[in-house]
Amino acid sequence: MNDLSRGLRRAATPATRISGTDATHAFTVAAAVNDRDVLRCNLFRSPNIQRAPVTQILLKENWPSAGRAYNAAIDEAVNDIIVFVHQDIFLPDGWLANLTRCLDVMTQGGIDWGVLGCFGVSAGAPRGVGRIYSTGWGRIGRYITGPEAVDTLDEIVLVLRKSSGLRFDDALPYFHLYGADLCLAARAMGKTSYAFPGYCVHNTNQLLTLPSEFYACYRYLKQKWSRFLPVQTSCIRISRFDGPLHLRRLQETYAAIRGKARRPVRRFSDPTPFAQDVLTEDADVPSAASDG
Question: What is the pTM of this model?
Answer without folding.
Answer: 0.86
